[in-house]
Design goal:
One of its GO terms (cellular component) is non-motile cilium. By secondary structure, this protein is mostly helical. The chain has helices at residues 2-14, 36-40, 48-56, 63-77, 87-100, 107-118. The longest helix has 15 residues, at 63-77.
């Protein structure tokens, strides 16, 4: 039976008649184009790997102040929202801040600010 249908379809195509099952409808595709200039005002780039490395360092003088400064800069940078591509790194930074809270209570405010960015 399958060969009969294939033969009928081939004959219909040769004669110019289109079978309902073999017709292809064209679907228009609209691409979303965002220029970098437009997005630059919303999301300022920041090297999150540098912040992660800085938060992973320990036992240096003045390091806590520098770490807090970078986390506050991160919060200012992403005050308009977080791009999804940076979400994993942001949560890693949040976890590092949460781990420091026990010994360095100044990180409570920074961790809270990062959580507010997500909400």
């Amino acid at each position: 039976m399958w060969t009969e249908e294939a033969g009928a379809t081939a004959e219909a195509q040769e004669s110019g008649i289109r079978n309902k099952s073999s017709s292809f409808s064209q679907i228009p595709v609209v691409g979303v184009v965002t220029e970098d200039d437009e997005a630059q005002g919303v999301f300022k780039p920041m090297d999150l790997n540098r912040v992660i490395k800085l938060l992973e360092e320990t036992d240096k003088d003045g390091l806590e102040e520098k770490q807090l400064k970078f986390v506050k800069k991160l919060v200012r940078c992403y005050q308009n929202g977080l791009p999804l591509r940076d979400l994993a790194q942001i949560f890693k930074i949040l976890n590092l801040c949460a781990g420091k809270i026990k010994n360095q209570p100044h990180f409570i405010e920074s961790a809270y600010d990062i959580i507010k960015l997500c909400g």
